[in-house]
Design brief:
The complex is a heterodimer of chains A (149) and B (577). By secondary structure, chain A is mainly alpha-helical. Chain A contains 4 helices and 1 strand. Chain B is elongated, with a radius of gyration of 35 Å. The N and C termini of chain B lie far apart (135 Å).
Chain lengths: 149, 577
C-alpha cells in the first residue's frame, strides 16, 4: 500500500556500503574464533618447531661428542702406530732389519734440512693467531645497542 | 533530614586508611622482595630450579720435543649398576646380564652373580674404561639398572717410556706423581658447567635450552725430552744394570748450552702399563734423577780444579808433587789406587784422578773460597727444575759446628757432599758452556686453544770466567781423549769428561764393598752438543766408574750425536757403535 511504501523499507541496517558486508554478531564471532584458532595453531606450530629444533640440536651435540671421541681415539691410534716400539718391531719382524754394526758418515755440501728428520709429528702446536673481533650482523649490533633489560 | 556526614566520613576514612595501609604494606613487601632482596631470591630460585652439572674438560697431552705424544687421553665410559632396579623383579637382573654379556665379552652368569651381590651396596661400578663405542651401544640399549658415565682414560702410546718422569693419574683423573702431578693445573684445564632447569622431581625439563658455562680444555705440554734419546738411554740403563748386577742407576742427557733435558732415566722404576697402586712400595714412583742424593766422588775434582783455575792459582801445567798420601786433620788420605806419581801437572791430576792432588788444591784455595765456588756451582741448593720431589743436596761448610779440616780434604774429591744427578750434571755443564750455570728445564712450552707459553733457557749465574771454562773444557778433553785406554773415548767425535767412584754411604759410615760408579762426559769438545751423566749403583762385577760407567758414554754418545745430526769431528775416521 502506498502509506506503507512511504514509510520506507524496514529499519534494517544502514544501506550497505558498496563492496563491504555488514558486521553481524555471528560474523564477528566467526572472525574471533578464526583468529583464536590461528593463534592457537601458530602456537602449536612454533612449539613443534621448537621441539624439533631442540631435538635436532641434541642429536647434533651427541654427534659432535661421538666425533670428538673418534678424533681422540684416532689420534691415539696414530700415536700408537708411530711409537718407537712398534717401529722397531715392524723393522725387525716384518722387514728383517737389524741394527747397523758400522756407521759411515759422508759429508755433503748441501745444508741439512731444518727440524727433526722424523715422520711428521702427530700434534702440531701451532701458534694461535690473534683473532680480530668477529663481524656480527647489523641486526645483532642494533639489538645490542638498544637499552633492553 | 540531613545525612550524618561525619559518621559516614570517618568510616570511609577508616576503611580507606585500612586499605591504604594494607596496600602500602603489600607494595612495601613487594619492593623489599623485588628490589632489596632481588639477588637473594634470584639465587634461591635458581638453586631450586636449576641444577649444575660439571663436565670435566679434556686433559692436555704430554708431547716430546718433536710433538710425539707420550701421554694422551681417550674418551671412555664407566658402567654403573643400581641394584634397586631389580629388587622387586629379579628377572630384570637376568635381562641386564644377558644384554651386557656379549658387549663386555663375559659370561652372563658371572655378570648376573655380580649384579645380585649386594655386598657392594645398591650402586656399584661394574666396569670401567669401556670403549666409547661399546659404551654408546649399552647406553642406547637402556638396560634396567644400568647407567653409563662419561670418563676419559690416559693412554701412553710409547708404552712404559719415561714412566717415572710422566707419572700417573688417580681415579679422579688428577695427577698423583711425576709431570702429571707437577703440571696438573695446566693439563687439567678448567671444567665447564651446564645449568639446566629441573622439575619438582629433580628431573631435567626437556625442551628447555640448558645454559652452558664453557670451561677450558687442558693445555698440551711439549717437553724437552726426545722420545728416541729417552728410549736409547732407558734400554741401555736396563742392559747395564743387568750386566753388572747393579741395584739401580741413572742416565741423564742434557744440552749444556741451554739446560734442556733431552733424556732422563732412572732405575728401579715402575711400568705405566702395569700400574698397581695397591702395592705399598711408593719408592718406585719417585724420579731418582732429582730425588736421590749420592756422593759424586771424583767428578767433583773438576769443580775443585775449575775453582783453582778461575782464581788464577794454577794453570793446566802447574805441578805439584804426589807422594801418594796426605795427612790432614789427623787423617791420612791416599790415592784411590794407592799409587804415587811424583811431579804431576794439573791435567795429569785429573787424568789419574788423584785424591792427593785434589787435597793439595783445596789447601791452595782455602775453605771459604772452595765452598763459595761449590755454592756457585749449585751444590747444596735446588736446581729449580720444576720437577716434584727435588732434593737440595748437602754441603757442610766450615761455618758448621761439626765441620773439621779433614772435611775440606774429602769434599775436594767429592766425598762428604751429597748431590742429585741433576745437580751434578748442571754444575759440570757450567764448566764447559762458557761458565754459565743454566737452570735445567724439561717443559719447553704449553698451549691450549688460545694461550701459548714458551719457556726460554735461564742463566742462573756465572760460575767461572769464559777463559776458565775454555781451559776446563780442554783439560777434561785430555782426561778422555788424552788417555788411550779411556773407556769413554768416542769414535768419530772428540769428547771430554770425568769418572767418579764413591763408596755407598750408610748410617755408620761407608759400605766398603759397595760403590757408585759414575761418569760425566760431553761431546763434541769444540762445541758441546750434549752432556751426559751415567751413574750405576752398586755394580757387583767391578766398582770403578771408568770400567762400568765410562763405556756407556762411549756407546750412547755417538748414537745420540748422529741422531741430532751433529757432524763428526773426525769425519775421515770410520765411526762405529
Amino acid at each position: 500500500m502506498a502509506t506503507l511504501d512511504r514509510l520506507g523499507p524496514p529499519a534494517a541496517a544502514s544501506p550497505a556500503l558498496p563492496g563491504k558486508a555488514a558486521w553481524t554478531p555471528r560474523r564477528a564471532i566467526a572472525v574471533a574464533l578464526t583468529v583464536a584458532a590461528a593463534i592457537a595453531l601458530l602456537q602449536v606450530v612454533l612449539f613443534s618447531t621448537f621441539t624439533h629444533t631442540g631435538q635436532r640440536l641434541t642429536n647434533l651435540q651427541s654427534q659432535r661428542e661421538e666425533l670428538q671421541a673418534e678424533i681422540y681415539q684416532t689420534e691415539a691410534d696414530i700415536a700408537a702406530l708411530a711409537s718407537l716400539d712398534r717401529t722397531e718391531r715392524v723393522a725387525r719382524e716384518r722387514l728383517g732389519m737389524v741394527p747397523a754394526r758400522v756407521n759411515r758418515y759422508v759429508s755433503v755440501s748441501i745444508e741439512a734440512p731444518s727440524g727433526a728428520l722424523l715422520p711428521r709429528p702427530v700434534v702440531q702446536i701451532a701458534p694461535q693467531e690473534a683473532t680480530a673481533s668477529e663481524e656480527q650482523p647489523w641486526w645483532r649490533t642494533l639489538i645490542q645497542a638498544l637499552p633492553l633489560p | 533530614m540531613p545525612r550524618n556526614r561525619s559518621r559516614l566520613t570517618w568510616r570511609v576514612i577508616a576503611l580507606a586508611a585500612f586499605f591504604l595501609f594494607a596496600t602500602g604494606g603489600l607494595v612495601g613487601r613487594l619492593a623489599y622482595i623485588q628490589l632489596v632482596n632481588h639477588e637473594r631470591y634470584i639465587e634461591e630460585a635458581n638453586a631450586e630450579h636449576f641444577e649444575k652439572r660439571e663436565v670435566r674438560s679434556t686433559r692436555g697431552a704430554i708431547l716430546d720435543r718433536n710433538g710425539f705424544p707420550l701421554a694422551t687421553s681417550v674418551e671412555v665410559f664407566d658402567l654403573y649398576i643400581d641394584r634397586r632396579a631389580w629388587e622387586k623383579d629379579p628377572s630384570r637382573a637376568r635381562k641386564t646380564a644377558e644384554g651386557l654379556a656379549p658387549l663386555l665379552g663375559q659370561d652372563a652368569a658371572a655378570i648376573l652373580s655380580r649384579l645380585e651381590d649386594s655386598s657392594e651396596g645398591p650402586i656399584a661400578l661394574l666396569e670401567s674404561s669401556l670403549d666409547y663405542e661399546i659404551g654408546r651401544v649399552i647406553e642406547d640399549m637402556s638396560l634396567p639398572g644400568v647407567t653409563v658415565a662419561d670418563a676419559t682414560e690416559r693412554y701412553y702410546p710409547e708404552g712404559d717410556l719415561a714412566s717415572a718422569l710422566l707419572g700417573f693419574l688417580g681415579r679422579d683423573h688428577s695427577g698423583l706423581a711425576g709431570l702429571e702431578a707437577d703440571l696438573d693445573q695446566v693439563l687439567a684445564g678448567s671444567p665447564s658447567y651446564i645449568y639446566f632447569e629441573r622439575d619438582g622431581g629433580g628431573q631435567p625439563i626437556p625442551f628447555v635450552q640448558p645454559i652452558e658455562q664453557p670451561g677450558e680444555d687442558g693445555a698440551d705440554v711439549r717437553l724437552t725430552i726426545d722420545r728416541y734419546i729417552q728410549r736409547l738411554i732407558e734400554a741401555e740403563l736396563d742392559f747395564q744394570i743387568e750386566a753388572h748386577g747393579a741395584s739401580g742407576g741413572t742416565i741423564l742427557v742434557m744440552d749444556p748450552m741451554t739446560g734442556a733435558i733431552l733424556g732422563m732415566a732412572g732405575r728401579p722404576s715402575f711400568n705405566l702399563s702395569q700400574l698397581n697402586l695397591d702395592v705399598p712400595d711408593f719408592e718406585i714412583y719417585r724420579n731418582r734423577a732429582v730425588t736421590d742424593l749420592y756422593e759424586p766422588g771424583s767428578v767433583v775434582k773438576t769443580l775443585t780444579m775449575a775453582t783453582a783455575i778461575d782464581m788464577g792459582l794454577v794453570n793446566p801445567n802447574t805441578t805439584y808433587f804426589d807422594s801418594g798420601y796426605v795427612e790432614k786433620g789427623g787423617y791420612e788420605f791416599k790415592n784411590w789406587d794407592f799409587s804415587s806419581h811424583g811431579t804431576t801437572t794439573m791435567t795429569q791430576l785429573l787424568q789419574f784422578s788423584l785424591n792427593t792432588g785434589a787435597i793439595w788444591l783445596s789447601d791452595l784455595i782455602g775453605p771459604n773460597d772452595l765452598y763459595r765456588y761449590f755454592d756457585s756451582f749449585g751444590l747444596g741448593e735446588s736446581t729449580h727444575s720444576g720437577l716434584g720431589g727435588e732434593s737440595t743436596g748437602l754441603v757442610r761448610t766450615n761455618a758448621a759446628d761439626d765441620w773439621y779440616p779433614s772435611d775440606l780434604a774429602t769434599n775436594s774429591y767429592g766425598q762428604g757432599i751429597a748431590a742429585t744427578p741433576l745437580q751434578v750434571i748442571t754444575a759440570i755443564s757450567s764448566l764447559i758452556n762458557g761458565g754459565n750455570l743454566m737452570r735445567p728445564y724439561i717443559v719447553s712450552e704449553f698451549a691450549n686453544g688460545k694461550d701459548r707459553r714458551i719457556y726460554e733457557p735461564v742463566v742462573v749465574r756465572r760460575t767461572i770466567s769464559p777463559e776458565s771454562s775454555a781451559t776446563m773444557k780442554e783439560m777434561m778433553h785430555e782426561v778422555v781423549d788424552g788417555v788411550q785406554w779411556h773407556g769413554a773415548r768416542l769414535k768419530g767425535y772428540s769428547a771430554g769428561g770425568k769418572t767418579g767412584t764413591t763408596l755407598v754411604s750408610i748410617p755408620t759410615g761407608y759400605a766398603l764393598d759397595s760403590t757408585i760408579a759414575s761418569f760425566v762426559g760431553f761431546a763434541p769438545v769444540e762445541n758441546p752438543e750434549i752432556v751426559m751423566l751415567i751413574k750405576i749403583d752398586e755394580p757387583k762385577d767391578d766398582p770403578l766408574g771408568g770400567i762400568v760407567a765410562a763405556p756407556v758414554f762411549a756407546k750412547l754418545a755417538p748414537k745420540i750425536l748422529a741422531y741430532l745430526n751433529v757432524k763428526p769431528t773426525q769425519p775421515l775416521a770410520q765411526a762405529g757403535q
